[in-house]
Design brief:
The protein is built from 17 helices and 18 strands. By secondary structure, the chain is α/β, with parallel strands linked by helices. The strands form 4 sheets. Strands 1, 2, 3, 4, 5, 6, 7 and 18 form an 8-stranded mixed β-sheet that branches. α1 (2-18) packs antiparallel against α3 (105-113) and α2 packs across α16.
């Protein structure tokens, strides 16, 4: 297996050598008071950060570094809090490879397991996806600096000053011309737990789906799950498989959605051009997509429903909660429900002020509510809370005259919170190829234009002769 993967890695490098035209570095080296200035700092070492860095390299921007807050092996959800068995996307969806056949998940999988196993495969396992990303990173030798958590962003004489807290308790900082936030599904806000649960239930008695949960310790317990998304079902299934006494999964809707709009969105027209639509059309697209929501994958639902101790409760929102001795009592329109532990699958809310990466400029960044007023009857508080981004996924100011405008223009949002403006792009395997390439080209364009005069001076000084002789070719007889 190792030999096949090593051979594939060599094939990737050969393929990249064959298409290396115009990928040499072209951005002038930059230093400030002896300190090196990065062209781009990428925040987040998961799939989006890795793919973005690869795309920038292919466009000749090699002065790029990735900063990841977790230790090696901890980036992304796949081997941390993701509790599905396989990815939710079809196996044929490509992403980080950016169109290089030898770098695709299929090529990696066949090198590891064989072509027959790929043909028989339904969806890629989450551990295999993480192993693929690790191989992708190592094959391309992408520069990831681990255990660096970004917690401050400032504008320093036309450059971004990025401050990091390190795992050993020290602080460090870098200067960068541009920054890409590739911090995942919750990168534009915070995970959400209903306030009435936080206020009344001890933290040891509930967990959000993104948190570490000791499922073995829950054996024989009654579990209440709030939420009908895939993560809620994944956690319910994991609890059932660990031997809990029962799981009751409750949702606000009367029944689960059946239609997955993501499958419709997986076409080159939408993935490549949604961001260019007028605001009203984008709004109506996203309003429909968010209204449909995503059902749990069929195999995820079956993973729960095969257990006789699993129950599904539609039309059962949780209205309140309290402790009654050692029992958790949840109030619903259908009456009270009693549990020993709660799992909260209520997703996240968009709130730039809640994250250290974005808190310093949150009050200046434009949201959809600042730039667009929907027609009567088409309002959505959720959609209005999303950042309103520019054509290259950069933040925009609420006011064109805001002093933070230059800083915001240098920060590109490649998290899930870019979805409202850019469609499927950041934190989405389905939209990665289109979103990553658009983002990288936008950054390259901005940097080249910014240095336009320097590039012109370089051309004016260019004096490498190609025609080196006006004589007859050597060996010619006069």
């Amino acid at each position: 297996m190792t030999d096949q993967l090593d051979s594939l890695a060599r094939q990737v490098r050969r393929d990249l050598d064959r298409i290396a035209y115009a990928t040499k570095p072209w951005s002038p080296p930059c230093h400030r008071d002896g300190e090196r200035v990065l062209d781009v700092a990428v925040i987040g070492g998961g799939q989006s950060g890795l793919a973005t860095t690869f795309a920038l390299w292919r466009l000749g921007l090699s002065n790029v570094r990735i900063f990841e807050r977790e230790s090696p092996g901890g980036a992304g959800p796949w081997v941390t809090y993701a509790r599905m068995i396989t990815l939710r996307t079809p196996k044929h969806v490509t992403g980080p490879d950016l169109g290089i056949p030898s770098l695709t998940p299929q090529s990696w999988f066949e090198a590891r397991y064989g072509a027959e196993k790929w043909r028989a495969l339904d969806k890629i396992g989450k551990e295999d996806w993480q192993a693929y990303l690790d191989w992708f990173r190592d094959t391309l030798d992408l520069p990831v600096t681990h255990e660096h958590a970004l917690d401050s962003v400032a504008w320093e004489d036309g450059l971004l000053r990025l401050g990091f807290a390190t795992a050993d308790g020290k602080r460090t900082s870098v200067l960068a011309r541009r920054m890409v936030l590739a911090t995942g599904i919750d990168g534009g806000g915070r995970w959400f737990v209903p306030p009435f649960i936080e206020a009344a239930i001890p933290k040891a008695r509930y967990a959000h789906t993104h948190e570490a949960i000791d499922f073995e310790a829950l054996k024989g317990r009654r579990i209440g799950v709030l939420g009908g998304g895939a993560s809620a079902f994944d956690n319910a299934a994991t609890a059932l498989e660990a031997g809990v006494a029962s799981v009751a999964l409750c949702i606000r809707r009367e029944t689960l959605p059946r239609i997955n709009p993501y499958r419709w969105m997986e076409n080159a027209g939408f993935l490549g051009s949604f961001h260019a639509l007028p605001d009203l059309t984008r709004w109506r697209f996203m309003r429909r997509i968010f209204d449909l929501n995503q059902p749990p994958p069929q195999d995820t639902f079956w993973r729960c429903s095969v257990h006789p101790t699993f129950s599904f409760h539609g039309g059962t929102p949780w209205l309140d909660a309290r402790m009654d001795g050692e029992e958790i009592v949840v109030a619903t329109p259908q009456g009270e429900m009693r549990f020993d532990f709660l799992i909260i699958g209520t997703g996240f809310v968009i709130d730039l002020a809640a994250r250290p990466e974005t808190a310093s400029f949150a009050s200046a960044a434009a949201l959809w509510t600042h730039r667009f007023a929907p027609p009567g009857g088409e309002e959505s508080a959720v959609l209005s809370s999303y950042p309103y981004l520019g054509a290259h996924s950069q933040f925009l100011p609420r006011s064109a005259l805001a002093p933070e405008a230059p800083l915001l223009a240098a920060i590109h949002n490649f998290t899930f919170s870019a979805t409202m403006s850019m469609g499927l792009s950041g934190a989405s395997i389905s939209g990665m190829r289109f979103g990553v390439e658009r983002l990288a080209r936008g950054i390259a364009n901005d940097l080249f234009v910014e240095d336009g005069e320097a590039h012109l001076e370089n051309l004016l000084a260019y004096d490498t002769e190609e025609l080196t002789s006006l004589d007859a070719p050597p060996g010619t007889v006069a």
